[in-house]
Every structure is written in structure tokens, then in C-alpha cells.
Design brief:
The protein has about 475 residues and is mainly α. The protein is about 80% helix and about 0% strand. The protein has one domain.
């Protein structure tokens, strides 16, 4: 970012960098939608099991992804200073931390069925979800490695390859799902286990392709050379930035996961409708997330160049884009709620009318929180760009768990509003986070983010030789 750039130029730069990331997120989302759609046609219990099982997996995954999420701003800031050594050191240690986390959490999936039963889920749904996670759970290893590589390449502005590899993975997953879930081409009909095998296979292939691309395109970075040697200084830096990001994401994801559990208390029909409505809301959110990732990188570049004016102008362009997207998404959800829900269900299924009847109200609620969902994503992306992660973590925990969660439970069960009450809690949680994070960025950090702040200075924390 430079002072010469206008808002229009900032917007164009953001789109050039961000649209491939949006496409990548949507293609990755397509992997999960494929599971939802195909299992929705296979059976309501199978659909509900993947909704709750997928959320179980995602909660553990997203905490570990915090170390990867710390990378784009660090890489972008280091490259703005032409410091490739720090790029290599930070990326290696992000790999280390992600692998350590995966090794700690992978065994949890062995007990998924018991945990879900303890959480009050339907026994049949819990059993199917346990079958799914016994296989798909091991995908946390390649998935976290993919996150590190995507963050590394995004920080280097190589977002196009991230897009195309993710699109390719989504296509492979769709085909293997069709083969393994329904038993085509001579393969056995495996149902939810087929979806799990397909997911694990797809993630492994995508990791191998991205790793080969990174090594061949940037041989000077030597990402995997002397990989076994620790770098305590770089690891401490990535850990300090990454664990608050992981817990911030967990606070939001945990609220939605808890909403899934509460919907399961109501009925499998409510849980299935919730899962579809959540997929639709997630589709719109991923557009905001891709632009938020781009805003993180652009803000990191501005921070590396001490360009406070460019930081503010770029942030304003990002926020205006997010608002425009939110308005369009809200209109689509309000106008086509029933039609969108029908895409995920077998028209002749006996439970389809009941799922749609519940789901329409939930999609309307999703339309209601579009502006807040996009706004909080953009605010937190900008804060990460200037490597401000700890206070946003506290804000997210308070707003989601001490505001959104009690409201969701109170309206859903004490006032007996059911699923609509649960989703109203989601709306209120998102709104409070949006307002709080936006206030932190615009009233405080955007005023001083590049002015002699040692808490965000990558150079000061990385000085010294270390393990290169």
C-alpha cells in the first residue's frame, strides 16, 4: 500500500488478491456441501450425523488452524521488508505447531460417538457420526498442513494456485463421494463411511500438490530442509500470534457448534434443517472471509512499510465491499429461502416438507445476520493484518459465550421459541462482536498501528540468527 493509491485502486488491489481466495474458500466449501447434498439424498439420519459430526471435526480443526492463520500477515510484512529468511522460519514453525496440535487432538475422534451421546444427541445420529469421524478424523493432519501452505502462498500473493488446487480437490471429492456413498462403479455402498474416506483422500492429495508447488516455485525458501530442527524464537512468535486466533475462531465456531447441539435436542428434523441453513449462511460468509484474508495481507504489507494512511484507505475499501456483499446475500436469502433448501433434499423424501418448514425460518434468520457476519469477519481480518490478536480473542469470547450463548439457550428453551430462538442468539452474538471489533480497529488500532508499537513489530521479535 502506498499513499498514492486511491480508494478505487485499493478496491481493485483487494479484489485481485481476494477473489482467488474467495474462490478457494467456496471450492473448499463445495467439499462439505457435497457431503451434505449427497447424504441429504441418502437419508435424513445420515445428513444429521454429518452435520453434527462435521461440526465436531471442524471445532477441533479450527483451533489448530490459528497457527496457520497467523502466517499471512507475518509473511506479507516480512516480504514488504524483503526479509525472506523470516518467511521461511515462520512457515516452518507453523508446520511444527500444527503437527503437534494434530497429534494431540486426533485420538479424540476415537471417542466421538460417546461424546455425542453424552451431549444428548439421538443414538442413531451419534453412531453414524462416530463411524464418519473414525475415518475423517485423521484428515486433521493433511487439513492443517494445507492451511499452512495456503497461508504461506497467500502471504506471497500466490492466491491463484490456491484456488485451482482447491477446485481440483472439490471435483475429486464430488466424484469419490458419488462412488463410495452410493456404491457406483463396482464399489460397495458405504454411506457416511464413504463420505469420510473421500474426504480423507481428497485432503491428502491436495496437500501433496500444494507442497510440491511450494517447493518447486520457491526453492530458495527451503521449507522442508532441516525440517526436524526447532527454531524456538520463530515458534514463540507464531505461537503468540496463533493461539489467540485459534481461540477467537473457537469462540465463534463453538457458538455455532453449540447451536447444532441444541438443535439436536429439539429433533433430527430441526438438526437437518439447521445444517442446511448453516451451509447457506456459510456460503455467503466465505465470500467475506476471502476478502478478509486479502485485507489481512494488505494490512500486513502496510504495516511492514509503515504506511498508516494506506492501511486506513485499504480498510475502508474492504469494509465497503463487505457491506455490498451482505446486502445482496440478504436479499437472495429472503427471496429464495424455500428454493435454496430444496437443493439439499430429495423431493420425494417423506421428511422433506418438515425440514423445509423448519428451515425457511432459519434461512430468514441467516439473512438477518449477514451484515454483522461480514462486518466482524472484515474487522478481525484487519486486526490480524496488524498482528493484533489477543484483545480480539477476549472480545470474541465475551460476546459469543457470555452474550450470544445465553440468549440462544434462553430464547430457544426457556421462552420455548425453538430453533428460531437459538438462531436469534447467533444474531445477537455476531452483532456485538461486529460492533466491538470495528470500534477497536477504527478508534484505536488504525490510529497507531504502525507507529512504534513493539507488540506488532516482526523485526524486533525476529532479530538474531536463530535456526535458518
Amino acid at each position: 500500500m502506498t499513499r498514492a493509491l486511491t480508494k478505487r485502486q485499493h478496491t481493485r488491489a483487494l479484489l485481485v488478491l481476494g477473489l482467488p481466495l474467495v474462490g478457494s474458500h467456496l471450492a473448499q466449501f463445495g467439499v462439505h456441501v457435497t457431503d451434505t447434498v449427497m447424504l441429504g439424498w441418502y437419508g435424513v439420519d445420515e445428513l444429521a450425523s454429518v452435520v453434527i459430526g462435521g461440526m465436531f471435526w471442524f471445532v477441533l480443526f479450527i483451533v489448530g488452524s490459528g497457527f496457520a492463520s497467523a502466517l499471512p500477515a507475518v509473511v506479507a510484512s516480512a516480504m514488504a521488508r524483503h526479509d525472506e529468511v523470516q518467511v521461511r522460519r515462520a512457515t516452518r514453525m507453523a508446520f511444527w505447531l500444527s503437527l503437534i496440535y494434530a497429534t494431540i487432538t486426533a485420538p479424540v475422534f476415537l471417542f466421538a460417538e460417546r461424546i455425542l451421546l453424552y451431549a444428548g444427541q439421538d443414538p442413531q445420529v451419534a453412531r453414524l457420526a462416530g463411524d464418519y469421524l473414525l475415518i475423517a478424523g485423521w484428515g486433521i493432519y493433511p487439513s492443517l498442513m494445507i492451511m499452512v501452505l495456503k497461508s504461506y502462498l497467500s502471504g506471497l500473493e500466490r492466491t491463484a494456485v490456491v484456488l485451482w488446487v482447491t477446485v481440483g480437490a472439490a471435483l475429486i471429492h464430488g466424484f469419490t463421494n458419488w462412488v463410495l456413498i452410493f456404491g457406483h462403479l463396482g464399489f460397495p455402498e458405504l454411506g457416511v463411511r464413504g463420505a469420510a474416506i473421500s474426504t480423507l483422500l481428497t485432503e491428502t492429495i491436495a496437500f501433496i500438490i500444494l507442497a510440491l508447488y511450494a517447493v518447486r516455485t520457491f526453492p530458495g525458501h527451503q521449507l522442508f530442509s532441516r525440517f526436524w530442527r526447532p527454531d524456538n524464537q520463530a515458534m514463540a512468535r507464531i505461537f503468540a500470534l496463533g493461539w489467540p486466533i485459534g481461540l477467537t475462531i473457537l469462540a465463534e465456531t463453538g457458538l455455532f457448534a453449540s447451536a447444532s447441539i441444541m438443535m439436536g435436542w429439539i429433533s433430527p428434523i430441526s438438526l437437518a434443517a439447521h445444517g442446511i441453513a448453516l451451509q447457506l449462511a456459510s456460503f455467503a460468509f466465505l465470500i467475506h472471509l476471502g476478502l478478509s484474508n486479502a485485507a489481512t495481507i494488505r494490512a500486513g504489507q502496510a504495516q511492514g512499510q509503515d504506511d498508516l494512511y494506506g492501511l486506513r484507505q485499504g480498510a475502508l475499501a474492504a469494509v465497503m465491499l463487505s457491506i455490498s456483499i451482505a446486502i445482496v446475500a440478504s436479499g437472495v436469502f429472503y427471496l429464495f429461502a424455500s428454493e435454496l433448501l430444496s437443493l439439499f433434499l430429495d423431493p420425494s423424501g417423506p421428511d422433506t416438507p418438515a425440514v423445509i418448514a423448519v428451515g425457511v425460518g432459519l434461512v430468514y434468520m441467516a439473512a438477518l445476520f449477514q451484515l454483522a457476519d461480514g462486518g466482524q469477519a472484515m474487522a478481525i481480518g484487519l486486526l490480524r493484518g496488524i498482528q493484533d490478536t489477543r484483545v480480539p480473542m477476549y472480545i470474541a469470547i465475551i460476546c459469543y459465550w457470555f452474550v450470544g450463548m445465553p440468549v440462544a439457550y434462553g430464547l430457544g428453551f426457556w421462552l420455548d421459541w425453538g430453533g428460531l430462538g437459538v438462531w436469534m442468539g447467533l444474531v445477537i452474538g455476531l452483532v456485538t462482536v461486529w460492533i466491538s471489533l470495528s470500534a477497536r480497529f477504527w478508534l484505536f488500532r488504525a490510529q497507531t498501528a504502525t507507529e512504534d508499537d513493539p507488540t506488532i513489530s516482526g523485526a524486533g521479535r525476529y532479530s538474531g540468527s536463530g535456526n535458518r
